[in-house]
Amino acid sequence: MQFTRLRLNGFKSFVDQTDLSIHPGLTGVVGPNGCGKSNLLEALRWVMGENRASAMRGSGMDDVIFAGTDSRSARHYAEVTLQVDNSNRLAPAAFNDADTLDIVRRITRDAGSVYRINGKEVRARDVQMLFADASTGAHSPALVRQGQISELISAKPKARRRILEEAAGISGLYARRHDAELR
Ligand code: ATP
Ligand code: MG
Q1: Is residue 23 scored above 70 in pLDDT?
Q2: Would the CB of 135 count as within 6 Å of ligand 1?
Q3: What's the first-to-final CA gap in the chain, in angstroms?
Q4: How many Å apart are CA 157 and CA 5, to the nearest integer?
Q5: Model confidence over 34-55: pLDDT tens digits?
Q6: Distance CA 122, CA 144 (A)
Q7: At what angle do helices 157-167 and 171-182 cross, to 10 degrees?
Q8: Which atom of ligand 1 sits closest to the CA of residue 67?
Q9: Which string of b and e fits 49-73 if b means at least 16 CB within 10 Å?
Q10: pTM to 2 decimals?
Q11: In what order do the strands lie in the sheet with 120-122?
Q12: Which pLDDT tens digit goes with each residue over 93-133?
């Protein structure tokens, strides 16, 4: 699944709308300390359905909303759009008639998140499942946080096994089995 564009609006330090084109191959993001490199990766994780504030380095989910500076007032919402190429038709049937998918997550202060895929409102679960089989997703082992390598080395065997299962692409099956057992 090829990501083609990431758009941020009011997300953490990205107060003004920022568009990043993502081309095939390697993309590097460079910049001084504190310029927002990690925030970009968190935006990617967040739009794919991350629900742990700790993974966003915050204490609550509203902490992803631009909090204001001396010269700019705080925003009341944050929105991230991830555009993916679906020309190989990997998306689930419900969204699989389009060449590109725009996945949007918007959070409004004190009112939680709303997700849309190509304009249609969907559940967080739909977005999480869209990415769960594509070796991407909010919990993908492909997203490596700062400091995560040293955590991995000292991880307990069970936690390490979960990471290996995700890397092997079978965690989507577990999520679906869990869903089936709840029904
Ligand atoms: P390093 O090279 O040190 O890893 P980085 O480029 O990864 O730095 P980030 O951690 O992405 O930098 O960005 C940190 C900046 O984002 C800080 O200046 C912090 O104040 C700002 N920031 C984080 N959350 C918010 C928010 N909700 N509102 C405004 N600014 C925020
Ligand atoms: Mg960083």
Answers
A1: yes
A2: no
A3: 29
A4: 36
A5: 999 999 999 999 999 999 898 8
A6: 27
A7: 100
A8: 28
A9: bbeeeeebebeebbebbbeeeeeee
A10: 0.85
A11: 18-21, 2-9, 77-85, 100-108, 112-117, 120-122
A12: 888 889 999 999 999 999 999 999 999 999 999 999 888 76
Q: For the chain, what is the radius of gyration of the CA atoms? A: 17
Q: Could you tell me if 143 and 45 are in contact, meaning their C-beta atoms sit under 8 angstroms apart?
A: yes
Q: Is the CB of 41 under 6 A from ligand 1?
A: no
Question: Given a cut of 80, is residue 164 above it in pLDDT?
Answer: no
Arch. (CATH architecture) of 2-182: 3-Layer(aba) Sandwich (3.40)
Where is the binding site for ATP, in residues? 32-39
Nearest to 62 by CA among 120, 112, 115: 112
Complex ipTM value:
0.98
Q: Specify the residue for token string 């008639």.
A: 97
